[in-house]
Design goal:
Shape: globular
Mean pLDDT: 81
Strand content: 25-35%
Order of helices and strands: EHHHHEEEEEEEEE
Largest sheet: 7 strands, mixed
Length: 184
C-alpha cells in the first residue's frame, strides 16, 4: 500500500510561519506563484528538486515536508514490508524509501519507479547523487554530457550542474538512488 504524503498543507504552514506570500516564496525559489498555489492546494505534485529549492528558501531541509520515522541506531526494511511513498494523491511518481526518515539523516536511499511518459524537467541543486539502474534504460543529461545507462550501470555525480533524466526503454525504469544531503 502506498503512503500518501500531502505536502500542500505542510508547505503552506512553513511559508506562513516565515511570513512569506506565495509570490515572495516563488520568486526566491525560482518557481511561479501559480505553481506553488497548485502545490499548496494539492493540484500539482512537486518534484524532489522543487522541494529542495523550497526547503532551502524556507531555511529548513526536505525532511520538514515528510513525517519522520522513529530514530534507532539500526533501521531494517523487510522486503515484504516495504512501503511506497507517493507525493500527492494524483502523482505518477512513486518512491520506495529504503533509509530511515529521521530528523537528521545524512543521506536518503530510495528506489524511483519512473514511467517512460514521465517528463523530467532540468534541475540543479546542492549535493551528490549515486544512481544504480535496477530495471529499464535511462538517459542522464548532466550539463552537455549524455550518459546512457542500463540494468546494473551506475552513475555518481555532483547535482550542482543542471541535469535531466529520461526513460529510454519502452518499459518503466527503476533507479536506486543514494542522495546527499538527505531529501526525505
Amino acid at each position: 500500500m502506498d503512503e500518501i504524503v500531502e505536502l500542500g498543507g505542510r508547505l503552506r504552514r512553513l511559508r506562513r510561519a516565515r511570513s512569506l506570500t506565495l509570490a515572495e516564496l516563488a520568486d526566491k525559489a525560482n518557481l511561479t506563484a501559480g505553481y506553488l498555489a497548485n502545490v499548496e492546494n494539492g493540484v500539482t505534485t512537486p518534484s524532489l528538486s522543487s522541494l529542495a529549492a523550497l526547503a532551502a528558501v524556507l531555511g529548513t531541509d526536505m525532511s520538514a515536508f515528510f513525517p519522520a520515522t522513529e530514530r534507532t541506531n539500526v533501521h531494517v526494511h523487510r522486503a515484504a514490508q516495504l512501503k511506497n511513498l507517493r507525493v500527492g494523491r494524483n502523482s505518477s511518481s512513486v518512491y520506495t524509501v529504503l533509509s530511515a526518515r529521521s530528523a537528521d539523516p545524512a543521506f536518503t536511499g530510495l528506489v524511483d519507479h519512473i514511467t517512460p511518459s514521465d517528463s523530467t524537467m532540468s534541475v540543479s541543486h546542492f549535493g551528490e547523487r549515486l544512481a544504480l539502474v535496477l530495471k529499464g534504460e535511462i538517459e542522464m543529461r548532466i550539463g552537455t554530457a549524455v550518459h546512457r545507462l542500463g540494468v546494473g550501470d551506475t552513475l555518481h555525480y555532483s547535482s550542482h550542474p543542471e541535469h535531466q533524466l529520461k526513460v529510454t526503454s519502452e518499459e518503466p525504469a527503476e533507479v536506486l538512488w543514494v542522495v546527499t544531503p538527505a531529501v526525505l
